[in-house]
Amino acid sequence: MVSIEIIPTTSDHIIELLLELKDLDKDELYRFGADKEEMLLKIYKRSIFVDSVIADGKLVWIFGVLGEYLGETGRPWSLFTPEGEKISPFIVTCFYRQAIDKMLQLFPVLIDMVDIKHTKVLRMLKIVGFKFGEPEPFMNGLFIKATRRV
Questions:
Q1: Within 10 Å of residue 93's Cβ, how many Cβ atoms?
Q2: Which residues 6+ apart lie within 8 Å of 30 measured at CB?
Q3: What is the mean pLDDT of residues 45-52?
Q4: Beta strands of the chain (E only): which ranges?
Q5: The CA-based dihedral angle spanning residues 66, 30, 94, 15, taken in that order and rounded to the nearest 10 degrees
Q6: Which 3 state secondary structure label does DSSP give 74?
Q7: Does residue 107 have a pLDDT over 70?
Q8: Best label site of 58, 96, 102, 134, fewest CB within 10 Å?
Q9: Burial tier of 146 (Cβ tally within 10 Å: 0-12, 13-18, 19+)
Q10: What's the longest Cα–Cα distance across the chain?
Q11: What is the pTM assigned to this prediction?
Q12: Which residues contact 89 (CB under 8 A, 6 or more apart)?
């Protein structure tokens, strides 16, 4: 059985994640026009909250939400380490459902733009209640707008 804990993210977690980013995630960060370290640290610092998931003592996943305090729309984000890919999708989805509920307490609407290549992420978002638009050009790729409302 996997021992999982969710803790507030520190800058050390961000640095650890940067060392283990998957190529698809690196490409997505580069599309924002900055190097991956700079972009991920900026996202971390601008997020309303950011949590790290630790499984058996190893960082496996970081998720958070961007948005303005008292704003209407939150922008969820998440990144997995390669170790995180090995965890049961059922377990990940259970924890992500709790994270989405926490985000919906802060924002009545959550919107994410997801690269169509992130099939596992799209599947997880569908399970936790997001609705999808049609693929559209965004940041030099095809992305799907995922929306979840209270």
A1: 15
A2: 36, 39
A3: 95
A4: 4-8, 47-55, 58-66, 73-80, 109-115, 131-132, 136-138, 141-149
A5: -90
A6: strand
A7: yes
A8: 134
A9: buried
A10: 42
A11: 0.89
A12: 120, 123, 124
Characterize 15-38 residue by residue with b for buried, 16 or more Cβ atoms within 10 angstroms of its Cβ, and e for exposed: eebbebbeeebebbbeeeeeebee
**144 confidence band (pLDDT: 50, 70, 90):** very high
What domains are there in the chain, each with its CATH number? 4-149 (3.40.630.30)
13-26 mean pLDDT: 86
Number of continuous H segments (helices) and E segments (strands) in the chain: 5, 8
Q: Which of 110, 116, 125 is nearest to 27 (CA)?
A: 116
Mutual orientation of helices 23-31 and 36-46 as an angle, nearest 10°?
A: 80
What percent of the residues of the chain are helix, what percent strand, and what percent coil, each to the nearest 5?
A: 40, 35, 25
Average pLDDT over residues 118-139: 93
> Residue type at 100?
I
Structure tokens at 3: 């021992």
Contacts with 141 (C-beta within 8 Å, 6 or more apart), sequence order: 28, 31, 115, 116, 117
Place of tokens 């008292």: 70
